[in-house]
Specification:
This protein is of the alpha+beta class and 694 residues long. Helices cover 40% and strands 15% of the residues.
Length: 694
């Protein structure tokens, strides 16, 4: 053996060390379970703090319940119960009257991440990834060690299935700790009561004398987790209220940790049309996905593959694509080379193909948008616009926008007792920060006005306020006019689900701030949302909403989506601008008339003394001229925005709550700045009934 060979084989040689290191690294490498990954990165799923964890848990369960009910054609009824079980520990229970879940599927749905029926379907649904509810159960297990409890019933005549399970994060598999079948009927109801199993057995009676109807089917999930309950912006209360706006067909029973029961009643029993599943559109398929589809297809020809695997591809379109790629229509797909597939991909992009079918998405509709806003947001002007369907990356989507103008700030709606509770619950450092974070639509300027009026120090902590300071703050919130400091309240939705976090990184917010709202009569500083008593609701419906993260809190900024957002916002902005300009005209002419009235008496007296004519006759003639020159001061609009006795109007889907000229003169001017304090008129049901009749 040579000297060199001997050195290479000695234990201390670099070659031996490299080989040993590689072997050690190989032994330490292993597959990472998806559950294990998200257990260490739970912030990606929306469980980055206790307050948000409670909201995310309830949100995921409610979304699943609504999807299940609508797919089964059942008018949804949902029970939400939040109960405090210890310091920073809460139990969340969510039940629905949906179709229930088959026994063998229950452990997989609640104890396995990335398991569901919605990921591969191209149709509109709230859930997409199959992560949410199982991730909530995993978070509960990690923070409290308590298993997820599930009760599910598929028929009034069949037993209910009860499970206690947890997720094995190493294998991403469910572990069943307990599982029993509960008899149907009164025997089962007694067993549930005796063993402390949480389950709503009957609907609330419609009248005090009526017999309550038994729940025929449904599912309830109960998760105990480390959490924090806090009202205000980004809370469970706000989420349920916004859910009721976008889903007028649902009834929600909400029992909060303080044992207060709130009922969000449905305004219609008509379910949204069921979306239809579609095939992928050729424009939305990339090269790698195209290779996979060609490997998996049972079709024996390229023509058959294109027509049967994609939407909007006819035999003629398939022939054009093959000619563009210089591939025969009867070529076997699995015989194509990598270069052939890339040519096929470029030929697809170069061929003109119709947009995909849009019956896979179901909008809320302009009428229900108006109705939902009118019931929840008190205002004097409402309008809505639904854009025609469009496409991004081959995925159909649709944008809807609704706007309400003239609503009061939430600071005027609360009681003193509620203010005390909110102050005690708040984790804000200062009273100013508490006001901005708790009340939607309250800007920094308005918060400064309230703290100044209440004579609060700039750095006063909300949790350390004395009773007299709380009284002063409450009086300031009720009496200080903060309309000019009010900022637009933005409600964002994706597939009827409220988006409450990551507002700045959302395409919806970016589109709103990039618009010039000054041209529509609102004041706005560059890069910010406009000021004024405005509530804006924006809804995106799509077969696949492009969220920026797995927690589904913000919509990604695709150019096609931003374009449709801009057009929808401009549609409601034009209607708002027309309303504000007409109202401003009424105010200007009324001011002119008041000036005329101030001097007409003196002018009539002077003319009468100069030429000896009748003073009353001169005064009447001058009054007639003043009324003619300021006729716009008497202009009135009906509830659909039309001028009374004239043909000019704001277009379709506008609702105006009738106000007197005096009330209009006391409302904010076209820049959102109030002329004087005025009581809020929240409208009436008759106003909306007239709109429906028209």
């Amino acid at each position: 053996m040579s000297t060199i060979e001997a050195e290479m084989t000695t234990p201390s040689s670099p070659k031996t060390k490299r080989r040993a290191t590689a072997e050690t690294m190989a032994k330490s490498q292993r597959e990472i379970s998806v559950s294990e990954f998200f257990a260490k990165n739970r912030h990606l799923l929306g469980f980055d703090n206790p307050r948000k964890a409670l909201l995310t848990t309830i949100k995921e369960a409610v979304d699943n319940s609504l999807d299940a009910c609508e797919e089964a054609g059942i008018v949804p009824e949902i029970w939400v119960h939040v109960e405090q079980t210890g310091a920073n520990r809460y139990k969340a229970g969510i039940q629905d009257n949906g179709p229930g879940i088959m026994k063998k599927q229950i452990p997989l749905i609640f104890g396995k991440l990335l398991y569901g029926s919605k990921f591969h379907r191209l149709r509109m649904s709230r859930g997409q990834q199959g992560i949410g509810i199982s991730a909530a159960g995993m978070y509960g297990l990690l923070t409290t060690g308590k298993p997820v409890k599930i009760v599910s019933k598929v028929s009034i005549r069949k037993p209910a299935h009860y499970y206690e399970l947890r997720i094995n994060t190493k294998t991403n598999d469910p572990e069943i700790l307990d599982g029993i079948d509960i008899d149907a009927g009164e025997k089962g109801h007694k067993y549930i009561a005796d063993h402390g199993i949480e389950w709503v057995t009957h609907y609330d009676p419609k009248t005090p004398d009526a017999k309550p109807a038994e729940l025929r089917s449904g599912t309830r999930v109960t998760i105990e987790l480390e959490a924090k309950y806090q009202r205000g912006r980004g809370s469970v209360d706000e989420y349920l209220e916004q859910t009721a706006i976008a889903n007028p067909h649902v009834t929600i029973h909400y029992l909060d940790p303080e044992n207060n029961l709130r009922l969000y009643s449905r305004s219609t029993r008509k379910l949204p049309p069921e979306p239809v599943e579609i095939k992928p559109h050729p424009y939305g398929v990339e090269v790698g996905r195209l290779i996979t589809m060609l490997k998996e297809t049972p079709e024996t020809t390229i023509s058959g593959f294109l027509t049967n695997s994609f939407s909007r591809v006819s035999n003629g379109i398939a022939k054009q694509i093959c000619e563009g790629a210089k591939i025969g229509t009867r070529t076997h797909g699995k015989k194509l080379t990598r270069d052939d597939i890339e040519k096929l991909y470029h030929a697809i992009q170069a061929t003109k193909i119709s947009n995909p079918s849009t019956d896979c998405i179901v909008p809320i509709g302009e009428e229900l948008l108006l109705k939902g806003m009118h019931q929840v947001v008190p205002a004097e002007f409402y309008c809505a616009a639904t854009r025609p369907p469009s496409v991004y990356r081959g995925n159909p989507f649709l944008i809807e926008v609704a706007l309400a103008y003239g609503g009061a700030v939430e600071t005027t709606k609360i009681t003193k007792d509620l203010l005390k509770e909110l102050l005690s619950e708040s984790d804000a450092r200062t009273v100013r920060q508490f006001l901005i974070n708790t009340f939607n639509g309250l800007g920094a300027d308005a918060a400064d006005k309230i703290t100044k009026a209440s004579k609060m120090g700039a750095r006063k902590s909300p949790g350390k306020l004395k009773p007299r300071e709380i009284d002063a703050l409450f009086d300031a919130m009720q009496n200080v006019n903060v309309n000019e400091g009010q900022s637009m309240n933005v409600l964002r939705y994706a597939n009827r689900v409220p988006l409450q976090f990551s507002q700045a990184g959302c395409a919806i917010t970016q589109s709103i701030t990039s618009m010039n709202w000054r041209s529509y009569g609102l004041s706005q500083s560059r890069g910010n949302v406009p000021s004024g008593p405005v509530t804006l609701m924006v809804h995106m419906a799509s077969v696949w909403v492009p969220f920026t993260s797995e927690s589904k809190e913000a919509v990604a900024s695709y150019p096609e989506i931003q374009k449709e957002l801009r057009l929808g916002l401009q549609a409601v902005g034009r209607k708002l601008g027309m309303f504000l300009r007409k109202r401003q005209l009424v105010k200007q002419q009324a001011d002119r008339r008041s000036i005329f009235l101030r001097y007409l008496g003196e002018v009539a007296t002077a003319v009468s003394e100069l030429n000896g004519c009748d003073r009353q006759s001169v005064y009447d003639n001058l009054m007639a001229v003043a009324q003619k020159k300021t006729a716009e001061a008497d202009m009135k609009l009906n509830t659909s925005g039309k001028l009374v006795d004239e043909t000019e109007d704001f277009g379709d889907n506008v609702l105006i709550v009738e106000k007197t000229t005096e009330e209009l003169l006391n409302r904010p001017n076209s820049n959102g700045e109030p002329e004087d304090d005025a009581p809020l008129n929240d409208g009436s049901d008759e106003a909306f009934d007239e709109l429906e009749d028209e």
